[in-house]
Design a protein that fits this description.
Blueprint: H1 20-27, E1 42-47, H2 50-65, E2 74-78, H3 85-96, E3 103-107, E4 109-113, E5 116-117, H4 126-133, E6 149-150, H5 157-162, E7 167-173, H6 200-204, E8 209-212, H7 215-225, E9 236-239, H8 242-245, E10 251-255, H9 262-273, E11 292-297
Parallel strand pairs: 1-11, 2-3, 2-7, 3-6, 7-10, 10-11
Antiparallel strand pairs: 4-5, 4-9, 8-9
Length: about 300
Amino acid sequence: MARKTSILAPQWWDYTTLDDEILNDAARLTVEDFPVLSRKGFKIVFYDTLEDFYLAEALEYINAWRQGTADKPAGICGPIGPTEQLPLVARLVNELELKLKDAHFWGMDEWFLDGKEVGEDHPLSFARADRQLCFDRIRGNLRMPESNIHFPKADTSEYVKSWQGARCVVMQGGQGDVKHWAFNDPFKREGKYKDAPPSPQEYRKLSTRIVDLHPITVMQNARTSGGGVVTGVPTKAISVGPLQTWQAEKVSIWQAGMHDNPFGMRLTTFMISKKIADSAVPMSLLAEHPNVQFNFYRPAIGTCEVEMH
């Protein structure tokens, strides 16, 4: 049977092209249903306060960095979105006097504009946000060497190579409205993908690369970071790939309800739990990763019932 056309962006693949049965089953999930969706390789964790949520997220940085040694450096790949954990990371490093000389950090993504990655003077720069919210707040005697901080660039070769030089203990991420991690968005519905999106096996081979952003992603970033000014958001980015994601020992996704809605959080949880992998819903491909954890701020899960505003 032919796949449906997206009701959100007809020239693209996205979750609205899935079979209605999957969408309806996900929408019916209650908060009480979530714990039973855990399975081997997929853990679901709840937090009842935002303070606990973001502290736990920050502690993943600390636990990863503490594992680094001169012989076996270790680190974390982290997102911009959420960002609330980043000042907490810096505070914890300073308070614990954690020396980061054997620690590494990989940024997940960066905007691509005018043929290159945006500079750190760009107001939406992810590297700028990481530095201002975290790294610049760490005391000088504790900071990791600049050579251990890896931000993706238009020439991805150095970034890709850096993944061979240290263990990635955990890759953190948020979940966007289009159900991505990093900027691993669905593909355009064109060429060889006109009638079907890439297979999960094909999508998983993708390395760090320059990507076209789904219109939903552009709109979301305007909403969450740009005051709604869509024209100020680039339509291309550089994204860490599934290839690097599968090099991470663990993938930890943090959902406080700021970047996706009750339905979206249900959909990817349901698909990963049931091992339904479809590249129109990129996050669902994590169904095939051996160690995934979804972290939820419980009040944000909400419901999918109609509520007029």
